Structures are given as structure tokens and as C-alpha cells.
Amino acid sequence: MTQQRIRSGRQARQAERVGRPVAIGRPYIHRNIPTYDILSEENLLRIEAAADRILAETGIEFRDDPAALDHWRRAGAEVEGVRVRFPPGLLREVLRSAPAEFTQHSRNPANSVRIGGRNVVFSPAYGSPFVMDLDRGRRFGTLEDFRAFIKLAQASPNFHHSGGTICEPTDIPVNKRHLDMVMAHIELSDRPFMGSVTAEERSEDSIEMARILFGAEFTDRNCVILGNVNVNSPLVWDGTMTRSLRAYARANQAAVVVPFILGGAMGPVTNAGAIAQSLAETMAGCALTQLERPGAPVIFGNFLSSMSLRSGSPTFGTPEPAIGSMVIGQLARRLGLPLRCSGNFTTSKLPDAQAMTEGTMSMLAAIHCGANFILHAAGFLDGLLSMSYEKFMLDDDLCGALHSYLDGVQIDDNQLAVDAFAEVGPGNHFFGCSHTMANYQTAFWDSGLADNEPFEKWEAAGGLDAATRANRAWKKRLAEYEAPPLDAGIRDGLRDYIARAKEGVPDAWY
Amino acid sequence: MTQQRIRSGRQARQAERVGRPVAIGRPYIHRNIPTYDILSEENLLRIEAAADRILAETGIEFRDDPAALDHWRRAGAEVEGVRVRFPPGLLREVLRSAPAEFTQHSRNPANSVRIGGRNVVFSPAYGSPFVMDLDRGRRFGTLEDFRAFIKLAQASPNFHHSGGTICEPTDIPVNKRHLDMVMAHIELSDRPFMGSVTAEERSEDSIEMARILFGAEFTDRNCVILGNVNVNSPLVWDGTMTRSLRAYARANQAAVVVPFILGGAMGPVTNAGAIAQSLAETMAGCALTQLERPGAPVIFGNFLSSMSLRSGSPTFGTPEPAIGSMVIGQLARRLGLPLRCSGNFTTSKLPDAQAMTEGTMSMLAAIHCGANFILHAAGFLDGLLSMSYEKFMLDDDLCGALHSYLDGVQIDDNQLAVDAFAEVGPGNHFFGCSHTMANYQTAFWDSGLADNEPFEKWEAAGGLDAATRANRAWKKRLAEYEAPPLDAGIRDGLRDYIARAKEGVPDAWY
């Protein structure tokens, strides 16, 4: 697949400014800054050797999925009960068929994203049972909340992806909510999205709905939906996950393979060990997709976390996982796989200073490590237990800043501005000079949420903090939201599918 | 000078934990992660060529300092009135005598810092006329505030330097406050500090007080005080600054040479142009120290800032200056000079989400760009107009995290933990395993301010936000502060000096 032509960052922002308020930004970011390579070749080899030893000596259990065990037997792994041990080099050989880069198509072709290579895609947070806002506090998420977050993302120029289970719609039965979630993404957004993975048949439903939207043949040849599957760390793949992973791969759709390693609980307390474990677990999951269907797209994921030594609580947005992400990035590039890393993580229970200290450190780690698909880019609060409306808007703004960050520095005669110094001269200001007039509209990223006014002006306007401004901003955005048009035939087809899938099926609540 | 032996990060933190509450951390950080090199050799050469053209064609004005002009004439620059134009290569040649790395000594030798090379020193913010806290709001700073911030820094394990004009003590006359500020640093802290630069005689007073503390001969041979001098961008050096710069250099003390470039006002709106300007202005200032005294220590500084295109207000902690810092880091290393970059910048008027989003992006830029001396590491709020007690504590905590961040990843058999996987096995937890027990005390940085508790526990404890916790934390730290012992003879000598310096001098208030 060839790299599709996109507008440069400056051009895109210029275009946005002409037509404010902004409708849609760039479909994704093509990074213009290098990755941050933290470890030497020698040390990377030591981590890879440790992962190989874990895989060969301890191995990984694949539970409740005989077909997965059959795959491993045929591939040459040593299978003993549900334990699978991998001869060194086996997984890397299997992974050679996985694409380094692929397109996830959107129903609006202008919003299709390239995942892999130098491309970066921002997607909202995923999986919280609770939602929060400053008015109503913390409560269980509903389908109405779920739909609201899709609208907030769709109406922002700073995201590229609609996400998946943005929050759990707990007012809908567990065995039916995946249908409503996929429908909401399709109806309310025209960006790419993720399906369900919580049971094989729910994965199949999600993919089938994508087939209704994109056509069965197109779907078999192109990626149109992602499924985020988790390792049950340490070193266990549950059948629910591998069956879903295989369902996505079988349909030529991309699984995002993610160990969640809380150091000291689901992995060692030492960073290097957790990284080696993450590599081992992710390689095994990614390789399984290739055994199910060689050439299927797959994303190399990770989710490193640390622990408070005083309380035993998980911590997010701390330095060790940030540094760990940099290493994971190097390892993924050595495997030639698209990378999912970090996100905007925090344990704070409010959209406050702690939330954004931890979140910014975590997001910048994802940026520097070379992540291609950044899930949890917005809304994450409360150690992933709550999706916050205000945090979503703060993170959205940070995602906007990161577009400019990833554009890096342009070096050309206009940017270097040598002639402007001769024009302005020592001691004079650049306000009205011709270089400023020619460049000011595209020079700097302009936050929609930060208050840059002088103190007196800020105070006279009410002296609001960022969280309160974010509270006003999400309400305004929801009020102004307009759904992108959707073909009526497709909508009816999807509704019919959902009605049939739900009909006569008793509600299950866990 | 040889690199002094320091404890490794893990050892240091282990030592801290044994003796909680922590008294003193590491004297400075020796970075174990690479710098982030964002631009290619080719593009760096283009920026250097642009700086050379600015210096040769437009030149820089040196106002109200004939001695500086004499220096330039003797060095071979073209002097026309106060305008100085520099033949390409001249400044680089002059800068060859400046040390790449030096020690700033502290009255407590254990706290002396190495500036340059792979070393990183954190110092509080500098220069705000106002102070803020959540109880009393925004008000002019006083000597009491100034002393309070020194105490807060001294009592933290996360700083390495006492700073300089942490806030302006506006209750003391302008022409006398430098004496009280230097005295406060010496009495209340036993870390290195900065002197005044607001007039040549105040610089001389600051240095003279350092001589009383360290002895005249030691001071002539070693760096014991820093002076932070600003360019009057664009392309003007005022005599007040160059006279102070020369006073520090003459005494073999280190000037920190800092252009403040607000893009679109004091420099072009384009990042590459602002970087070229910064390089030109800083090289000229640093070179002047070498003409005054070859071999004097000097620090290559910069302060890039952007502008809100909607309001014309300065913005801080935005992506363009962060990216610009990375380039400046590469340029400083190519010159072989110690680097000061960024800090914890923001325009927020509260210690809120905006403050820490901007601050964290800005601080991480300083970390990645390889800055050796990070001024403004804590307390900066309100576009540098206010020093905030709560922000100081939040930033202090981030500085703690950055110690671990800069330690990077250790790769050895213990850290890789391969045997622990065999011990624990798939599906089991690592809580009590021998590897966890052997490593948990030193595994993760532990925030003193973040709340990592479950929501219910956090709520039951009052549901406080980070700013409120920071408010309690600074009061507790101030209440528990103990001054480090100071030799009574030195104290009396300093008091005598101050009394004589103030005697019979009328107060000046501007």
C-alpha cells in the first residue's frame, strides 16, 4: 500500500483557521520528528534474549481455546496441556507475514487512517465502567454517556479515531451492548472505530456490522474495524480473548494485542523484566493472528504500570512506565509491527493538576516512543475506572498541541527569517513586519482551552480554572454537535441486524 | 576537573527511604538516558549559517558599555557606534576557552553541583514580582515570601540549587534587596545559589558576599555563585546586563546568558528564525565572558516563547518552544557549552490542569534537550509574573519523578528477572515472590503528593484535589523546616558587610 497524500501540518492548520469553527482536522498525523531511541543495540538484544528465555522456559498458557493450541502445535511450538513453550526464533518467523503498516478505512474515506510507519492516530480512552463530570460526580456509565463521548470526539479536529468501548454503557445488558456501541460509532461518527471483544460471538457481531457498512468483499480485503484484546498477564491468554483475536484476524481485521502489566502484581517490579514480559506476551498474541490468517493486520500493544509502594495501589503516568514505553517502541520497530503505546494515564479522581501532570508525561512518552495508535488519548481518569467529560476536553486540547509538536521544526529560508532581522533591526519589535504578517496565521498552535490572558482580565472574566472551562466547553460542543450523514439503507440494514441479534435473547447482566 | 563520584539513582532512593522523612536527595542528577536529537546535521548547519548571517549582516547592539565595545574591537569584530558585526567564525573561536563542564561549589560540599556534560541541576523559578497561594490569592512578593521559598526548596530532596530571585521582595528597596536575598540563600540553604544582576554594583556585592562565605582566593579559583543575565531581544545587549555579565566573568563566576524571545514580538514568529536568533544572541553574550576572562565558566541559555494569535498574549508551555528547546540543546552541545533550557512554564493563573499540562510539556522538553541547569523548575505561574506556593509543591513532586525518569532503564540479570517468571509461573501474581521482596523498595518512584488511592478511599478522606493537597503540604513543610548550621563568624561577617553597604544609602524603589 502506498502512503496516501496528506496535507502538511501548516497547510492543514491554515485551512482550519480559514473556516473556523473547525469541522475536521487531519485524518491522522505523519510525524516529522524522530523517535526517541533510549537503549543501545546491546541492551535491546539482552531484553529480546530475556523474552526468548521466558517463552522457551516458562512459556505461556492458552486456556479454553483448543484451536489456538492446534495452531501452536502445527507451527512447531511445544504444547503440554495448555502450556505452550516456544523455541527461540519461532514467533519472529511467524510474525514476518504481518504488515508493517496498513489502512483502517472509515465510512468517510477522507477520515481513513494509516496505522504504522511514521503515522500517529489519536483515539479516546477505553473501558471505564464509570463516568464523571463536575456537575454530577461519579456514576455508572450509560449508553447516553457513551454516545455523548462519541459526539465530543467526532466534533473535535484533534482526534482521528472514534475509539471503542469509550465507557461501559451499563444500562444495556452485557450480552447486547456491543450492538448498540458499534451502532453508535457508525451513526454518530464518520471516523474509524473499534468493535467488541468480550466474547467470540460479540466480536463476530461487530465484524458483521462492519460488513453491512463496508460490504463483505471490501471488508475481507481491507481493515475496517479494530478489536482490542488483552493478555491475562502474567503469561496467560484466556480463550475469550484468543477466540476474539482469531475472529478479527480471520476476517482480515486488526487485533490490538495488549498485555496489562502492573509491576509487582502481574509482572516483576523491575522495569526491564516487565518490558521483557510484555514483549513475550505480545509477540505470542500477534503471532497467533498470523497463524489464523497470514497477512492479517495486527497492532503490537503494551500497557505498563507501576505501583505505590506505600499503599500497594496501581499508579499511572509515572516515570518508569514512560521510560518503559520508549524501550517498547524500539522493540516494536525491530519487529516491524505497528505500535500502540501508553495514552493519557492518571490515577487522579479529578481533572486537576495531578491528572495533567501524569497524563502529559504519559502522552509524551507515547509520542516519543513512536506509537502509531494511541488509545486512551482522552478522558482517562481514576486509574481507568472513570471516563471524565472535563478530562476529555483537557486531553483533546493536549492532542491539538501534539499535532504541532509532531510537526517538529521546518527549516527553510522563510522559517529562518534572516531577512526579517535586517528589516526589523536591533531593539525593534516584530509585530507588524512583513515576515510576521506573512506567517502569523500558521506560526503557533492556539489552544482553545488554555487561558493566556493577563491576570486582571482573567480575574474579571470570573477567574475560572481549567476544569471549569472544560466543563463549559463540553456542554457547548454537545449542544452544537451535528451527526454526519449516513446512508438510510445502511442504517436500516444495521438496525435490522441488531433487532434480529437481540430478538428472543434473554438479557444477561454480567 | 574529574567527575565526582555519586551514588546511583537506585542507591540514593534506597538511602532516602531508609531514613524517611527525606533530608537531602542527590546533589545533582547524572543522566542515564540519551538526549533527544531532533534535527539532522544538515539542518543544524542551516540554522548555524542563519545565525552567522544575522551576526555578520545585522549584528548586535551593545549599549552603554564602552568596555564591551573595546573587547569586541580587540577581538576583531566590526564596531560601528554601538552596533557590532561579527565575521563568521569569530565567536566560535572566542568560545573555545569556555569550559564544557564545571563545579558550582556550595557551602555544604556535599551539595556542590556539576554543571555541564550529562549532569542535570534543578533550581526554583526566578523573577516574579507577585506571589500566590490558595488562601491569600495574588499579592506582591515580600522578603518573607522569598525566605519561605528558599526553605521549601532546601527541605526538599528534589532540588539541587537554591536559585536566585525566587520572587521579588518588593518590601525592600530595589537598591538594597539584593543584599537581603543573597543573605537569605546563605543562611537558609546549604545548596548553591545565584546572585543579583540588576546593576553592576549589585553584582559586585553579591560576589563579595560569596567571597566572605568561601574566601577570596577560593572564589577566584572556583565557581561559587551564578548570575542570570538577559539579552534585550532582538539583538540588543544593554549595558546593565553586560556590565553584570563582565563582573561575574571577571570574578571567575558563571553568567547564565539568556535571550527571552517571544516569537512575533522580540523575534520572528517562525520557530527556526527564533532559534537562529537565540543562538546568535547567546553566542555573543557567552563570548563576551571569555573576552573579559578567558576560561571563566558560562552557561548557554535560552527562553523561547510563543504567542496566542487570537489575543496577542504570550503563551508558555506550548509545543513550538518545547520543540525549539530540543534544537537549542543540539546547538549548545555542538558549541561544547553547558546548557540552560526551558523550565516548568505556564500562563495559568492557578495551580490547575492547564498549569501542569503546560508545565510538564515544558519540563520534559528541558529534560530531553539535555539541559544541564534547569531554572524555573518549580513555582512558575501566571506567565512568570507570580510565584505560587502550591505550584511549587506540584513541580517539586514532578522534579522527584524526573529523577527516576533520568535514571532510565537498568539492564542486568536482576532487572530482567527471567528466573522470577519460572518461580511465579503463568497466571500467578508477583506480590510475595522473592524477586519482588528483593526489589520493591527501590523499584518505583513514589510521589508524595499524588493520590493513588481507590475512589472511595480518596472520597472518604475529603476528596481533595491536587492543589489543596499542595496547599497543606507547603504549610507542613514550612512548619517543620530547620535551617542548616552556619558558622557564626561568617554570619557576622556577612551581616557587617550588609550593614555597611546599606548605611547612608537612600532607599530607591524603582
UniProtKB/TrEMBL annotation, chains A, B:
Which protein family is named in the record?
Belongs to the trimethylamine methyltransferase family.
Query: From what organism does this protein derive?
Result: Pseudotabrizicola algicola
- Name the source's superkingdom: Bacteria
The record's keywords, sorted A to Z, are: Methyltransferase, Transferase
Q: Which GO terms describe its biological process?
A: methanogenesis; methylation
Keyword Cell membrane in record:
no
Q: Does the keyword Transferase apply?
A: yes
Record's protein name: Methyltransferase
Q: What is its EC number?
A: 2.1.1.-
- Matching InterPro entries, A to Z? MttB-like_sf, MTTB_MeTrfase
Question: GO molecular function: any one?
Answer: methyltransferase activity
* Gene3D superfamilies listed in its UniProt record: Trimethylamine methyltransferase-like (3.20.20.480)
